[in-house]
Amino acid sequence: MSVFEGFRFRHVSSPIHRLDPRVKFIYVLVIFGVAIVFLEVLPLILLFLIQIPFVLVASVQREWIRSLKGASFLAILIFVVNFAFAYFGGTYPSYMSPWEYPLAMSLRFLVLVESFSIFFLTTSPDHLSLALEQSHVPYEFCFAFTTAVRFVPVLAEEAQTIMDAQKARGLELERGNFIKRVRNYIPILIPLIVNAIRRSLELAEAMESRAWGATEKRTNLYVLKMKSADYTLIAVSIGMLIFGTYVRLYIPIPSLTMLLT
Amino acid sequence: MIEVKGAHFTYPTGVEALKGVSLAIREGEFVAIMGSNGAGKTTLVKHFNGLLKPAKGEVFVDEVNTRSVSIASLARKVGFVFQNPDHQLFCETAEEEIAYALKNFGFEEEAVKTRVTWALNLLGLTQYRQTSPFMLSGGERKRLALASVLAWDPKVVVLDEPTIGQDYEQKEKLRQFIVQLNTQGKTVIVVTHDVEFVADCGPRVVLMAEGKIVADGDAKEILTNKELAFKASIVPPQITQIFLGLADFGLPTDVINVHEAGKILFDFLKEEVKP
Amino acid sequence: MPIIEVKNLTYTYPGGTQPAIKNVLLTIEKGDFVIFTGPSGCGKTTLCRCFNGLIPHFYAGKLEGELTFARLDVTEHPIYEMACHVGLVFQNPENQLFALSVEKDVAFGLENLGLPRDEMRKRVDWALQMTGIEELRERAPHELSGGQQQRVAIACVLAMQPEVMVLDEPTSFLDPLGAEKIFEVISELNKRLGITVILIEHRLDLASKYANHVVIMDHGTIVLDGKPQEVFDSESARLIGVGIPKATRLWQMLRQNGIRLDRAPVNSEEAIQLLRGVLKRD
Questions:
Q1: For B49, what's the count of Cα atoms within 13 Å in the CB-facing half-sphere?
Q2: Cβ separation of B171 and C243 shorter than 8 Å?
Q3: What spatial distance separates the first Cα and last Cα of chain C, rounded to whole Å?
Q4: What local confidence, expressed as pLDDT, does residue B82 receive?
Q5: What are the two backbone dihedrals, phi and then psi, of residue C36, each rounded to the nearest 5 degrees?
Q6: Residue C11, beta-bridge partner list
Q7: For residue B272, what pLDDT is reported?
Q8: Does residue A10 surpass a pLDDT of 70?
Q9: How high is the pLDDT of residue C24?
Q10: For residues C199 and C51, what is the distance between their CA atoms, to the nearest angstrom?
Q11: What is the 3-state secondary structure (H, E, C) of B219-243?
């Protein structure tokens, strides 16, 4: 599960962690937009490098690297597939060599993973849920989101307990051919699902008992307030978007091939 | 039957659950492993059927090192009844539920049928043979889980917190049942923090605290020892508390059983009345 | 002054062939600390779900009879209204906590009610203080022990400032020390804040000393209702199979042999006191 570690929130206090999630999300969207707009390798490398200071300021290097490691397999796959199409099918821009276009595609993918990783590593699920609420997403969805995150470790533990319980009755997960191995998981899935359903019933009782649905105008203990750092990031993001659009439209970018030859 | 030598175990989360535990349980013994939540009791017993292997130290079951054999083969000898039956039940009928483990252990069809009938009968569940386990009440599900373990006739039966959520009658019946199991020759190990339950059974008590064994001996000695109770964060049985509070009258302080207590008090008061 | 009055209450779960509770007649006074006990399936959980309206609003089924809280008919008020008067704490601590921090969980009910932020802050601080868990404020529920989680659950309910708190076997998953802590917290709330407590419990040896009123149910009806000493001493309690405190049991045995104490003890301190009296006399 190590690739998931690259996206799980860590409790650190850094300026990036303190930024408003909505602003961070806008930033991620801008990166996404700018990355899509360019086909050339150079700007994509630039986009990739721009984000590294954020990673360092947020002190999440180790986890961020893990997310990249996990994404590298897919990145290589993207490269290979695109290269195959380029080389054999000739579907690439004329001013590049056949390997530059696939390289750009992979880079684009990595830039996306990188920015999403930063987002999730520096935003607590609580903050995220709060951002959703304040963005007028219906409370039921925000609640479902937070509760899901809240119970992930609980369910993981329960799955382990169930596995232990069935192993103690002679279940051997590693035995047998492929079909048998899949069927071996039934004694684990059924209790897990049944217990999850029982659990939701208990949760519903508890929710009702604490006045769920009392009023449409639900208030919140916390509130997200935009600070100067947030406004700065918005300005930076908009700046990037404008700059990127301008460059794309008016400034020809040399391809790596052209630079090297 | 079961030997633990200097076992150390740390969970992946970093919690050091066992800090050098050594223990020997002979065949046919009745042992209660006690201590507060988090003392390491469940971690310890999970080593008995190989679910956990010690990071340092060795565990031997029937003279076989748990590291050298599969969990399934250990489970054949050491039956484990988990705290929550809902972590095990998944079949369509009670019959299939009991048969599941038997089939895993390679019993013949005829033997499976006989044993299922026997196990259902033993726990008073015969009428539920074709019932779905999910339709049964909490207490019945617990009995079904117990039946499915006894069906394969393990030499050792481990029960993890069997009294949780049970009412008085259910506890009484369970207590009598466990004692009977032991009388019939099974090694019975009960993990529990229910002092009153243990006081009524009177087994050998292994008291744990913070990953170590702090006491190992007779229930009477251990449950009436104030320092030990404090160290292991357990509450002595009510009868013991009463007698400890009357110690200055010369009454014995190692009483845990209510019947015994009644008799002692009665005799004592008769003595006093005699001129 | 009665705070809850039940008259001829009968309830059948949807699809049930027999009523879970039959003709229940009961009065609970303001400030009472009531223990409900009885064998599994006797109806105590069902009855408690009626107090805050989960029955009939959440569970459907057929409810007959009358249940009034401070003279309000419970069946005519939705659960979210009753929630401000009757709080319910459940058996499994894990399944009552939804948020990612204790503070947010305690505020959950208040947020649902749409209270202004400062009011919520005040109540959250107060509830955390009353239950002795201020230092757990920022922690995530999954990191807490069962006993701590249960205290959080109590704080969550307390923040809504109910007049009555119902607890359904809150110590099932806790060890005896953890259970005692919970009883102490509840007792504090009962004594200091005057909150009426209704506690469903099997562990009478630990809980009895706090109660002034005990109700024993069996097969859907109330069989015994009165002071702890009277109820535990009665023959019916023994026949039903209720686990009366060992101290009371000891007293019964002594009485059988002709030794009388002034009254029936329900916990060890009382027993010690009474026995000292007898032993000194001789």
A1: 30
A2: yes
A3: 44
A4: 92
A5: -105, 130
A6: C21, C63
A7: 63
A8: no
A9: 92
A10: 12
A11: HHHHHCCHHHHHHCCCCCCHHHHHH
Asked if C130 and C189 count as a contact pair (C-beta separation under 8 A), the reply is yes
Interface check for C109 against chain A (CB to CB < 8 A): the answer is: yes
The type of residue at B197 is F
Band (pLDDT 50/70/90 cuts) for residue A153 is: confident
Number of helices and strands (H, E) in chain A?
Answer: 13, 0
Full strand arrangement of the beta sheet holding B212-218: B78-81, B156-160, B187-192, B30-34, B204-209, B212-218
- The amino acid that residue C88 corresponds to is L
For residue A186, the chain B residues in CB contact (below 8 A) are 90
Q: Angle B214-B216-B221 (CA atoms, 0-180°, nearest 5)?
A: 100
Q: How far apart are CA C104 and CA C124, in angstroms?
A: 9
C132's tokens: 């002795």
| β pairing state of B16-25 and B187-192 | unpaired
Look up residue B221 and give its two tokens: 């000695």
**Count of CB atoms situated within 10 Å of the CB of A197:** 9
The rounded distance, in Å, linking the Cα atoms of B87 and C55 is 29
Q: What is the pLDDT of residue A1?
A: 43
Percent of chain C residues past pLDDT 90, beyond the cut:
55
pLDDT-derived band at A23, boundaries 50, 70, 90: confident
Q: In what order do the strands lie in the sheet with C72-73?
A: C21-29, C2-12, C62-69, C72-73
C39 → closest Cβ in B169, B235, B269 = B169
Facing B239 at nearest CB: one of C38, C169, C246: C246
- pLDDT-wise least confident of A80-94, A106-120, C7-21, C218-232: A80-94
Higher pLDDT, residue A257 or B48: B48
| Contact between B240 and C246 (Cβ < 8 Å) | no
Residues B257 and B237: their CA atoms lie apart, in Å, by 9
Taking alpha carbons only, the member of C225, C150, C148, C160 closest to residue C195 is: C160
Summarize pLDDT for B28-61 with one digit per residue, the tens. 999 999 988 888 899 999 999 889 999 989 999 9
Partners of chain B (3+ Cβ pairs below 8 A): A, C
Is the separation of the CB atoms in A37 and A248 below 8 Å?
yes
Joined together, the tokens standing for residue A34 give 């700018």
Please give the structure tokens belonging to residue C177: 């020390």
Residue range B194-214: mean pLDDT, rounded: 89
Phi, psi of B56 (to 5 degrees): -135, 145
Quick count: other Cβ atoms within 10 Å of Cβ A59? 17
pLDDT for the residue A95: 67
One-letter amino acid of C167: L
CA distance A105 to A156: 35
Considering only residues A86 and C67, tell me which one the structure prediction assigns the higher pLDDT. Answer: C67
Q: How many whole angstroms separate alpha carbon B196 and alpha carbon B235?
A: 10
Both structure tokens of C192: 């200091």
Tokens of B210: 């913070």
Distance from CA of A241 to the nearest CA of C (A): 35
Q: How far apart are CA A43 and CA A219, in angstroms?
A: 45
Phi-psi bin for B122: left (phi > 0), alpha (psi -120 to 50), beta?
alpha
Lowest mean per-residue pLDDT among A9-18, A40-49, C136-145: A9-18
Map tokens 């939804």 to a residue: C98
Contact (CB<8Å) A187/B100:
yes
* Pairwise CA distance, residues B195 & B34, whole Å: 8
- In whole angstroms, give the CA distance from residue C261 to residue C11: 42
Determine the Cα–Cα distance for residues C232 and C213; give it in Å rounded to an integer. Answer: 11
Write out chain A residues lying below 8 Å of B142, CB-based. none
Pick from A38-42, A96-100, C17-21, C76-80: least confident: A96-100
